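Format notes (please read before filing issues)

Several people have asked whether sequences and C-alpha cells are stored in separate files. They are not. Every record keeps both together, in the order shown below: the sequence lines, then the C-alpha cell lines. Line labels are part of the format and must not be stripped during preprocessing.
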Amino acid sequence: MNTEIKRLTKQAQKYSEDIDKVLAESRKIIVGQEDILKKLVIALVADGHILLEGVPGLAKTLMIKTLSDTMHSKFCRIQFTPDLLPADITGTKIYDHKKTTFHTKKGPIFANFILADEINRAPPKVQSALLEAMQERQVTIQGETFPLVKPFLVMATQNPIETEGTYKLPEAQVDRFMFKLLIDYPAKDEEKAIIQRMTRGLSFAIKKVLSPDKIKQIQKFNTQIYADEKIEEYVATIVDATRKPEEYKLDINGYIEYGASPRASIWLIMGGKATALLNGRGYVTPEDIQAVAHDVLRHRILLTYEAEAEDVTPDQIIDKILAKVKVP
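Then the structure lines:
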C-alpha cells in the first residue's frame, strides 16, 4: 500500500502544479478571495457545483469567468429573472419553414462553465431545469436527450440581502450543490489594490494553461486518491452527528430539524480528496475533511425555528460537531 500511496502522491504533485498555474493566472485578475478561488478549483477537481452567496459587487461573476479563461473552455452567463423560461436555459426545437422540419436549438447550458446569476430570482420551474441538468448531466429537449459537455461546472449566485421578488431554492435542490460558499468584503489593503486596478486603466492578460482533456484526467485521478477506512468512518460519524446529536452528547439543544443527506458524506470525501490533490498528496488526512466540512454541510443542516430565533448559524453547529467528533 505504501508503494501505491507514493505513486499516487507523485502523480498528485504533478497535477497540483497544473492547478497552481490556474490559481496563479487567476490572481492576475482577482484580488484577494484566496479561499473562494481555491474552493472553486476544488469543486472543479471533484466534479461538483457551487452555490455562492454574497452581496453585489464582490467579483462573483469575474471569478468564474476568470477561471474559465485560464482553460480552453466555453463560458456562459445566465441572468436569472422572473420571466425566464426553462427553454431559455436548456434550448428548444424550432420549425424550419424552408425544410418543413424541426431542428434543435441548444440553450446556454451547453457550456463548460455556467454562471447562474441570482438563481433565486427565477421561479421554481426554471430553477428545476438547471438543477436537473446539474444532476443528470444531460438535457432532454422535447423527447430528445443530449449529454452535456465535460468538464461541466455550475456556479450559482444569490444575494442574501434582498427577499423581494425572489424564490427561495427548495432544500432538496440546494442539496445538489457540492459547496455553499459565503463570500465577504475584501480587506482594506485588498480594497486599495482593487481601486488601483480598476481606476488606472490597467489591463492584465491571462494565459490558458489547462485543456478540457487535462481537467477530465485530473477529475478521474481525484477518485483514485486514497482515503483510509478511518477517514470514511470519521466522515460517516460527522454526518451522523448532524442527524442524531443527542447520541454524541452535543450541546445544541434541538437546534437541528433535519441533518445532512448522504450526499454530504460523498462530497466530504470527494472534497477531501481534491484538497489532498491541491496539496500534492495521494492520500486524505482529517485536516482535508475539516477544510471542506463547513462548505459541504452549511446548506445541508436545516435549523429549527428556535435556532433561527437565537441567531444560531449552521457554521456554529458544524464547529461544535468537529470539536466533539474524535479525529482518527
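For reference, the curators noted about this record: The longest helix spans residues 2-27. Residues 225-321 form a domain with the Helicase, Ruva Protein; domain 3 fold (CATH 1.10.8.80).
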